[in-house]
Amino acid sequence: MFEYRKVMTELDNLLDRLIEISPPIEDPAGRATFDALNTLRLIRNAADQLIVTHTAQLDLLGVARKAGATTRKMLIDMGFAPTAASRTMRIVEASPSLPTLARHAADGRLSTEIADAIARGVAHIDKRSPTTLTNEERATQETALLGQALSGATPAEIERHARAIGNTLADATDTGIPAADDAGMNAVNAHTTDDGRVEIRADLTQTIGEKFLTMIDERSCPRPEPDGAEDRRTAEQRRADALELILDQAALGASIDSIGRPRTQLMVTIPATGDPAALPWTGSISQATAKQVSCDGSLTEIVLDGEGVPLQMGHTRRLFPAHLRKAVVVRDRCCIKCGAPPSHTQVHHIAHWADGGSTDLDNGCLLCQRCHTQVHHHGWDVILGFDRHPWIVPPATIDPHRRPLPAHNRRTMRLDHAA
C-alpha cells in the first residue's frame, strides 16, 4: 500500500508536468512532435487500461452500490463522458472471460476503443452461436479479433469481422435463432421528457434496422436553402425530419394499390469467395436473413471478387408488383397463418426467390411480419396445394406428423374435403 501511494504521488507530480508540455517550436521536420505524440498515445492507452482495472476494483467492492448508485453513474459523476463510462463498464464486465485481451491492453498497445470492439465482437459471436461458446472457443475468437487489432484494423473493421464470424456460425446449423435475426428480442420504447419532447429507443433485428437506416438515409440528404446556401440543418436534424416524412408517408398509405409494394430498396453484396452476404448499413447477414429480405422489397444483388471488385450486378427487381399483389389479396384475403388484414402483410415467396423461386400467383402468399419471421426462422413451411391455395405446415415440435393446415380464410376446410 505504501508503494502504491508513492507511485500515485509521483503520478500527481507527473500530471502537473504533462499539463505544462507543449509541442516544440524548433522542429521543422516534425520528428520530435511525432515521437512525442506516439508516446502520449501509449500513455493514454495505459492510463485507460488503469481506469478499467481501478473501475473493476471499485465495482467488486460495491462502492457505488453502497451509495445507491451504479458504477457507471459514479464514473459519470466523476467527470467521465457517458459514452466513455459505458465503454469502460463493458470492458470491465468482459475482462474476466477475455484474459488475453487484458494482457495486451496493459502495456498500452491497445486503445479502449479497440478493446471495447473486441469485447463486443466476442459477445456478438457468442450470441450468434447456436450453442454457448466454450472457454476454448471463446479464446480462439478472442485471439482472432486480437490479430485483427494488432494488424491495424479499426474498431469498425473488428466489429464487421466479428459479425462475419457470427453469421458463419449461425449458418452452420438450422437449430436456434441468431440474436440479430430473433424477432422475439425486438423492443421499441418511447417516453415523454419533462420538457414535452419524446425520446425513442429501439432494439431491432438486423433486417428491420437495415430497412430503417436505408429509409432514413434516402430521405435525409442535404437540400439547398431557398437562398441557395447549403443546408443549415445538422445531420441529426435531417434524420429527424426524415423520420417525420416516413411517418407522414405511412399515414397516407394503405390502399390496395400500395399494400405490399416494396418497403425499402435493399442492396445485397455476395462475395464470390463464399464469405457471408452483406447489407450496406448493418453488414454481414446469415443465409436465412438473405432469403427473408429477398421476399418483400426492392433488391439489388452485387457479386464481388476476392478484392471486393464487382463481378456481376443484378437488376433491381420490384417483387410482386401491384397487379400480382391484388391477385394474392383476392385469393388469400389475410395472413394465411394468423388472419392479420392485408394491410399488415407482405407477399412471401413459397419457393424462396433467393433459391430461384418465381414471382407469380402460384408462388406467393400473404404473411404478416411476425408469421413471415416464423416461416423463415421457426420451422414453419408453406406449400401450394393442388387446389392452387397455400397450406401452412407446422414444425415437428407442434405436430410430429407435420400435417398441412389450410390458409386462415379457409380454416373450416379439411384435407379430406379438398381431396
Summarize the structure.
With 419 residues, the chain is α+β, with helices and mostly antiparallel strands. The protein contains 15 helices and 13 strands.
Summary keywords:
419 residues, alpha+beta, 4 domains, 3-stranded antiparallel β-sheet, 15 helices, 13 strands, 47% helix, elongated, disordered C terminus
How are the SSEs ordered, and which strands pair?
Elements: H1 2-20, H2 31-61, H3 63-66, H4 71-78, H5 82-94, H6 99-106, H7 112-128, H8 135-150, H9 155-171, E1 187-192, E2 198-203, H10 206-219, H11 235-252, E3 265-271, E4 278-279, E5 283-284, H12 287-293, E6 298-304, E7 310-313, E8 317-318, H13 322-332, E9 345-349, E10 364-368, H14 369-377, E11 381-384, E12 390-393, E13 405-406, H15 415-418
Parallel strand pairs: 3-6
Antiparallel strand pairs: 1-2, 4-5, 6-7, 6-8, 9-10, 11-12, 12-13
